[in-house]
Structures are given as C-alpha cells and as structure tokens.
Design goal:
Order of helices and strands: EEEHEEEEEHHEHEHEEHEHHEHEHE
Protein name: Alcohol dehydrogenase
Strand content: 25-35%
CATH superfamily of the largest domain: Medium-chain alcohol dehydrogenases, catalytic domain
InterPro entries: ADH-like_N (IPR013154), ER (IPR020843), GroES-like_sf (IPR011032), NAD(P)-bd_dom_sf (IPR036291), YIM1/Zinc_Alcohol_DH_Fams (IPR050700)
GO molecular function: oxidoreductase activity
Organism: Pseudaquabacterium pictum
Length: 333
C-alpha cells in the first residue's frame, strides 16, 4: 500500500511516498481504509528526532496521527465496531501512522464518525479535540466563570479549544493576527489581542488558566497574566519530570527533563502557578463524547485547506509555515 514515510531522523529525514506492506492486525485492532487524515505540528516534529527518546517508531515510519475512514477488517477481540463502520481516530504514539491508504487502529482509540460530518471534517478533529479535552477538562478542570487564555486562537488547537472553553462557561482570551480577529470572535473569544499591534502580556490580566501553544517566551509571558494558584498546561514544552515518570523514562531522561523545565518551573513557583506539560493520548471514549458535541453542532470543525493524497508532503510544508486558519487535511478518497 502507499504511505507517506520518513526514513531517518534529523535534517534529512527523506519524507516521501513508499510502498509498504499492508499492516497485520492484533486481536484488539481494526484495519481502516483511510479516507482523510489531518496533519498536526507534531507530524513535522517527529522526523527531526525531537521526541525520538519518548515516541518509538520502527523506521521507515508512516507519518500522521489523525484519520477518518471505513473499517475493512476487525481483530478477534473487537466488539464495538464492525466491517463497514465509518470511524475517526487519533493513533499518535501507537507506533504507526495515518497518512496511508490503510491504517491499523486499536479499538480503544476509535469512535464512530459523527453522521453530520464528512470524512474530511471528521479527520480534522481527533488530535486537537483530545488535546483540548485532556488539557482543559482533565488537567485544568476549567469551570464556568473562570478566565482561560488560549494563544494562537486561529490555529488548529486554538479553534477547537476556544469553542470547548466557551462551552464550559469560561471567558476566553486569545491572540491572533489582524486578518483572523473576526474568526476567533465568531468562535467565542471574549478578549482578542492582535499580536501585530499589541503584546498580550500588557493587555490581559487575572486569568485562571492558560494553554501553552506557542514556542519561545510565550509560556513565561503567559505565567505573568495568571492569578495565584492558576494553571498553565504546555503543549510545546519544556518537558518536565511528571511527564518523564508518566512515560516511565529512565533516570538519565528524567534528569534531562528536570533540567529542561527547571527555569519555567521556578518562574511558575514564584508566581504560585502550576506548570505542566501534556502529551495527548489516544482515547476512543473521549472522542465519542466529542463526537456528540459535533453532532449537536455545539462545536464545529474549522478547516483551512484540503490537499489530495499525492500532495501530503506539501500539506506538511504548508502547516509548517504557521499560517493555517484551523486544520489542514489530506484527502485520500
């Protein structure tokens, strides 16, 4: 079968199409014919080797985490799905990829595709939906009436997270460029900072929680706008000791992560703010709950651009430019 793969880690990962064997199933797996797969920033980070120590692939490895498609085969222990079911899933960190004609999806990672979404729309959701859900509902425990800062509001995470935070009854602040102010306001953002005109840390005050979605000094600046006992969950690093322990990392990696996060942890402690790093996990039950919100149109997909399968590498290159309004999706069928 045809798949978008990378052959090595580093500056020359040789990303391109390869003919790879159709994957074999374990008892709890399903084989899904992929109709669409969205791309995420992590898909560009993996080939660099940045997460090589904690995310394991057998090279050459298929890229991609999100997918929507149709079940064509089920393992002997699969009970929730059958051949012919339309599903969507995130398979990040499960040792395989989604930008391919077929993908192996563990039963526990999948949910039925919402009936009101096509495959492209459904494929845009899993990673951003699960990341937002796990950061905002689980890690932060956002409550009605609280204030949540979600930077880069017009991006893939931002467009979903704003809607989820508003659904939970929070007041939302965000940053975006001039051309996207109307978009994020329509999604529900209450305070919008045009980063081309102002610095958010000089405008926003007394927030209860923040997402870290932008590299550089944005995390430190976000800590500065939080109330005492506020929470910040970073999706971009630095990695911390709690993450190392959750991954059962060895002592050397644990020390490395401690050193990486020492400065930000110290700054957060001075402000009486809780800092943590989040790696979203595949979770079909949570995805099913998200699917219900999509079916009820309480959250809507936001898609910037759709690329044909043959241009999957171009989709990754486009995403890397950092200008996408919502999600970028690769359509196979």
């Amino acid at each position: 079968m045809k798949a978008l793969t990378f052959k090595r880690y580093g500056k020359s990962p040789e990303i391109g199409f390869s003919d790879v064997p159709r994957p074999a199933l374990k008892a709890d797996d399903m084989l899904v014919q992929v109709h669409a797969a969205s791309v995420n920033p992590i898909d560009n980070m993996i080939p660099t080797g940045l997460f090589k120590a904690v995310v394991k692939f057998q090279l050459p490895a298929t890229l991609g985490s999100d997918l929507a498609g149709v079940v064509t085969e089920v393992g002997s222990r699969v009970t929730r799905f059958k051949v012919g079911d339309a599903v969507f899933a995130n398979i990040f960190d499960l040792g395989t990829g989604s930008i391919a004609e077929f993908a192996v999806v563990p039963e526990s990672a999948a949910a039925l595709k919402p009936d009101n979404l096509d495959f492209v729309q459904a494929a845009s959701i899993p990673m951003v939906g699960l990341t937002s859900w796990q950061a905002i509902k689980e890690r932060i425990g956002l409550r009605a009436g609280q204030k949540m800062f979600i930077p880069a509001g017009s991006g893939g995470i931002g467009t979903f997270a704003i809607q989820l935070a508003k659904l939970l009854g929070a007041k939302v602040g965000t940053t975006t460029s001039t051309g996207n102010v109307e978009l994020v306001r329509n999604l529900g953002a209450d305070e919008v900072v045009d980063y081309k005109k102002q610095s958010f840390e000089t405008v926003l005050r007394d927030y209860d929680a923040a997402l870290g979605t932008v590299r550089g000094d944005s995390i430190e600046k976000s800590i500065g706008i939080l109330k005492p006992r506020g929470k910040i969950v970073s999706l971009v690093g630095p990695l911390d000791v709690a993450f190392a322990r959750a991954r059962r990392a060895n002592v050397v990696l644990t020390v490395v992560f401690a050193l990486m996060s020492r400065r930000i942890k110290s700054l957060a402690k001075k402000r009486d703010v809780d800092y943590s790093f989040l790696f979203a996990r595949a979770d079909g039950e949570q995805l099913a709950q998200i699917g219900k919100l999509l079916e009820a149109q309480r959250i809507r997909p936001v898609i910037d651009k759709v690329f044909p399968f043959e241009q999957a590498k171009e989709a990754l290159d486009y995403l890397a430019q950092g200008r996408a309004r919502g999600k970028v999706v690769v359509q196979m069928r």
